[in-house]
Structure formats: structure tokens, C-alpha cells
Amino acid sequence: MDEALAVNQEKRRRRTLSEKRSIVEQAMQPGAKVAEIARQHGINDNLIFNWRKLYLAGRFGEVSVPSNRLLPVKVMDADHPAAPLGSDRGTISIKFGKAHIRIECNADRKALAMVLERLLG
Predict the structure, then answer these.
(1) In whole angstroms, what is the distance from residue 86 CA to residue 14 CA?
(2) Which of 41, 50, 91, 117 falls between 20 and 30 A from 100, CA-CA?
(3) What residues contact 102, with CB distance under 8 A and at least 6 apart?
(4) What is the pLDDT of residue 59?
(5) What DSSP assignment string belongs to 60-74?
(6) Exposed (0-12), middle (13-18) or buried (19+): which is 103, by Cβ within 10 Å?
(7) To the nearest 10°, the Cα dihedral for 43, 49, 52, 56?
């Protein structure tokens, strides 16, 4: 007796960047469970972890960083004289994730504001 097995071969679905971005952003919400989100979208949870790496590296377009995150700040004692505003001296070094920005002396204020706005979201 020769029986043919019916195999349901579904085509692999290609997701757009906006779909991937949306799924990753869902998974990044506080309390989100990656396995549940993966099941909802019919994908493997490892794929979401992969997409998250790409997303955080900026490969899915604009990264939406939650605005309620705190950034580390170093506070100096009052004995340290601060450079007066508008001074041509000094360097600012900012590390944020994999990004490292070094601003020296006469940085263009508008360009600096734009970079910081895009970085900090």
C-alpha cells in the first residue's frame, strides 16, 4: 500500500522593516515575554532576539529609546571651578550604548543639539 503524505508547506513570510521594528518594540516593553510575542506573530523567539540586535544597532531605521531611562551623571565638588559658559576650553565625552561622542572646544551648537536629540531620542 503506497500512501502519500500531505505536507503543508507554507511559504516563509517576509516581514517589512516596520513589522520587524514593531515586533521588537513590543518585546522590549517592560514585562513583555518574548516567547508569547513570538507565538502571536508565528515566528521563533530566537528571531526576535536577532532582530533586537539589529534594531539596537540601527539597522531597522530609527531606534525608539524609552524616554524614562536615566543616564549616568558625574557630579564634581564645588571646589572644582567649572569652565564659564561659552568658553573655548574643555572637552565633553558621552558614551551611550555603543555610541561614543567626543565634543571639543568650538562645537557647532545646532549640530550638537541635533546629534544629542537623535541619540537620546
Answers:
(1) 52
(2) 50
(3) 91, 92, 93, 94
(4) 82
(5) TSS----TT------
(6) middle
(7) -170
Q: Please write the tens of the pLDDT for every residue from 6-46.
A: 666 667 788 998 899 999 999 988 889 999 999 999 999 99
Burial class for 67, CB neighbours closer than 10 Å (0-12, 13-18, 19+)? exposed
Rounded to whole angstroms, the Cα distance separating 99 from 94 reads 8
SS3 (DSSP) at 38: helix
Please state, in angstroms and rounded to a whole number, the distance separating the CA atoms of residues 96 and 91.
Answer: 16
Question: SS3 for 54?
Answer: helix
Q: Are strands 91-96 and 99-104 parallel, antiparallel or unpaired?
A: antiparallel
Task: Give the whole-angstrom CA distance, residue 49 versus residue 72.
Answer: 26
